[in-house]
Design brief:
Layout: E1 15-16, H1 17-26, E2 41-44, E3 47-50, E4 53-55, E5 59-61, E6 67-69, H2 73-79, E7 85-87, H3 96-104, E8 111-113, E9 138-140, H4 148-157, E10 163-165, E11 188-190, H5 203-208, E12 214-216, H6 228-231, E13 239-241, H7 250-254, E14 264-266, H8 278-288, E15 294-295, E16 298-299, H9 302-316, H10 324-333, E17 349-356, E18 359-366, H11 371-376, H12 379-382, E19 389-394, E20 400-402, E21 419-425
Parallel strand pairs: 1-6, 5-7, 7-8, 8-9, 9-10, 10-11, 11-12, 12-13, 13-14, 14-15, 17-21
Antiparallel strand pairs: 2-3, 3-4, 15-16, 17-18, 19-20, 19-21
Helix pairs in contact: 8-9, 9-10
Length: 428
């Protein structure tokens, strides 16, 4: 919802939308920006005063205002003629007649948020609305405990609703619509934190909303394999959010492929794969979901998919039991080689040659010793004390590098087998 003024409403209980609007936006005792001017137009702090008439902002927020009714219809209509978004969540509305009265006075309303109002009652309108609210596109009924039959009644009088929010309503069962009526205008449904545990429970949603493209199921304890009988009810579903659900295995996840149009999936907080490294988890998900082009909000490019599918083959190539997806990918890429195991740790020792005057000695050198320790080990070979000779490393390019820092470790020279050192007598 677009940003709106957030001045605290009056603390009066059992007040109307009209009273809350006047208190928040028009009360000159609390709104220093309210300027009464006739004959000219002033835009000040989102309140428009034109020729003495007042028009409120297009987006209104009236949360925690103890609203329980609409108020004077004529005055409300006058003030709200430009309003397109109304957020009256966290209030005391409990009568659907009052809700309808409010909507009736806002002719261009596109978004209505009724969340956390105690609207857990059936809708019995008196009188029945003579016109439908065709401008309303988005409706939020989270944490209202609204009965399903009332939800369907609302969609009957709001035929333009494309986006519906029904989270936190303690739904355990979803009844079919009366006479199997459908609402093809609805494209997005938020259904978070309800009590759905089996995919079959969602079938009435698919039948009621045949054009549903986005379904958000965050926090539902849903698990089990998804059968073609379930996905047949969701022919248009392309976006599915299963964050913090209870999927229990890769085999269950792979049945998401049964949704014919699914390309965008969110799978964060899934218990069975949470202990995996992020890269490995993402690769295995991509490889198993052959049609997904977006995972957890990030695009899956062709190069990433190929890397993931090849990694999937390597992941299972030594497993006694291989998933069906493995056989499909082997058919695509053939049998591929294991990745070479490359160690970036230096070797513990290397074979080298040490030259002193006309003598050469071959030995295995511990590269984890210091230059001081290495130099001192040749006193017997040279017949000299360690302070009577210098030591040089002769690299593979023929350059001579003096070991002048006694505490430096030999492995820092990146020694390899065949390395050479030269001892040089000091002449005082």
């Amino acid at each position: 919802m677009a940003e709106a003024i957030t001045r605290t409403c009056s603390t009066q209980y059992d007040q109307s939308v009209l009273k809350a609007l006047e208190s928040k936006y028009l009360d000159t005792d609390h709104n220093e920006d309210y300027i009464k001017t006739a004959g000219i137009q002033i835009m000040h702090n989102l309140t428009s005063i034109k020729a003495g008439g007042i028009t409120l902002p297009q987006c209104l927020a009236l949360n925690y205002c103890h609203i329980s009714k609409a108020g004077d219809a004529g005055r409300l209509h006058e003030l709200c003629r430009r309003v397109r978004e109304l957020d009256i969540a966290e209030n005391d509305l409990k009568d659907w007649n009052e809700v309808v009265n409010i909507i009736n006075q806002i002719p261009h309303l596109e978004f209505l948020n009724l969340s956390s109002n105690p609207l857990n009652c059936k809708m019995d309108l008196h009188p029945r609305p003579t016109t439908q609210f065709t401008s309303l596109k988005r409706l939020a009924l989270n944490n209202t405990k609204v009965p399903w039959e009332t939800t369907y009644d609302l969609l009957d009088i709001m035929p333009g609703v494309e986006e519906l929010h029904l989270s936190l309503n303690d739904y355990r069962n979803i009844p079919s619509t009366p006479n199997n009526k459908t609402y093809p205008q609805l494209h997005m449904l938020q259904f978070n934190e309800n009590h759905i545990s089996q995919w079959e429970q969602l079938c009435p949603l698919g039948r009621a909303f045949p054009q549903l493209t986005s379904l958000i199921l965050i926090g539902n304890k849903i698990c089990g394999k998804i059968t073609p009988e379930v996905t047949a009810n969701f022919p248009k579903l392309c976006c599915l959010n299963l964050t913090n659900t209870c999927m229990q295995s890769w085999e269950e996840l792979e049945t998401l492929n049964n949704f014919p149009a699914l390309v965008d999936v969110r799978l964060q907080g899934i218990p069975f794969c949470e202990n995996m490294q992020e890269k490995e988890r993402r690769q295995l998900c991509i490889a198993r979901l052959g049609n997904v082009t977006r995972l957890n909000g990030s695009q899956v490019k062709d190069t990433e998919r190929e890397d993931a599918e090849r990694a999937f083959i390597r992941y299972y190539m030594d497993s006694a039991t291989k998933p069906e997806r493995y056989r499909l990918l082997i058919g695509r890429y053939g049998h591929i080689d294991r990745l070479a195991e490359v160690s970036f740790r230096p070797p513990d020792s290397v074979k080298c040659k040490v030259h002193f005057e006309n003598h050469t000695k071959e030995l295995s050198v511990n590269v984890k010793q210091t230059c001081k320790e290495f130099k001192k080990s040749f006193t017997e070979f040279t017949g000299l004390r360690s302070n009577q000779y210098r030591i040089y490393y002769k690299d593979f390019g023929g350059h001579m590098i003096m070991l002048r820092f006694p505490d430096k470790l030999l492995y820092t020279f990146n020694l390899k087998d065949g390395a050479e050192f030269v001892l040089e007598r000091k002449y005082f």
